[in-house]
């Protein structure tokens, strides 16, 4: 994976998406910024942070992903493999449904994905490696950013299957049931205790499928 390192970016996600749409880059390709000012987060929020944290966006061809991976499960897939990579470095980071990185009871990062022309998949990850705003967390291990990305991209190249990842994710989902989420349809907070996790990573609540917090 070729990585383009930037001193700063308003949003690595938007930067890469625009570069793909204008046909200036093609997969596989990654952008990593040392600082980010207006990153794209869940529910339209911004994910910002100072130097030392991870602000990563990369693109892959859809054919490079597991054949059994549902499109709506991609964020969970990419997040889980990074969680496993961090675990190899000794971290106890866990995933709160659907794809937020948590340390204890505080959020330390998150993932978003998009599918563009010709089935190009863009994944963007923000992760607090060094510093975090109030009420957020940094990850629980010190890790060199270059070593982390090298290990992560190697794991992405391995033969992974969604069915195998989902078995482990389903167990970890139990940690999420102690939390609430904002339900866009009802405009109310709902407890994840009411939710039933589906095989594609969505949840079933009140006979409705919910795929994300966005």
Output the keywords.
214 residues; alpha+beta; 4 helices
Description:
The protein is an alpha+beta fold and 214 residues long. It has a single domain (3-159), classed as BirA Bifunctional Protein, domain 2 (2-Layer Sandwich), CATH 3.30.930.10. It has helices at 12-21, 74-88, 145-157, 162-176, and strands spanning 3-6, 29-33, 36-40, 46-49, 54-61, 94-96, 100-103, 106-116, 120-127, 180-183, 188-191, 196-197, 203-205, 208-210. The strands form 4 sheets. A 7-stranded mixed beta sheet has the order 1-2-5-9-8-7-6, with helices on both faces. Strands 12-13-14 form a 3-stranded antiparallel beta sheet, with no helix packed on it. Strands 3-4 form a two-stranded antiparallel ribbon. Helix 2 crosses helix 3 (145-157).
């Amino acid at each position: 994976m070729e990585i383009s390192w930037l001193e700063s970016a308003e949003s690595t996600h938007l930067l890469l998406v625009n570069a793909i749409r204008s046909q200036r880059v093609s997969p596989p390709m990654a952008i990593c910024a040392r600082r980010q000012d207006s990153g794209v987060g869940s529910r339209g929020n911004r994910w910002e942070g100072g130097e030392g944290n991870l602000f990563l966006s990369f693109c892959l061809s859809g054919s490079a992903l597991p054949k059994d991976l549902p499109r709506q499960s991609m964020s969970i897939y990419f997040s889980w493999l990074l969680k496993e990579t961090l675990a190899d470095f000794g971290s106890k980071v866990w995933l709160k449904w659907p794809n937020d990185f948590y340390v204890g009871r505080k959020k330390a990062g998150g993932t978003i994905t998009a599918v563009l022309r010709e089935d190009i998949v863009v994944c963007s990850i923000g992760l607090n490696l060094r510093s975090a705003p109030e009420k957020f967390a940094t990850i629980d291990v010190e890790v060199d950013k270059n070593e982390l990305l090298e290990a992560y991209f190697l794991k992405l190249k391995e033969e992974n299957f969604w069915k195998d990842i989902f078995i482990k994710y389903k167990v970890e989902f139990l940690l999420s049931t102690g939390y609430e989420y904002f339900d866009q349809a009802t405009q109310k907070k709902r407890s994840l205790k009411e939710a039933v996790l589906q095989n594609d990573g969505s949840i079933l609540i009140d006979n409705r499928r919910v795929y994300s917090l966005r």
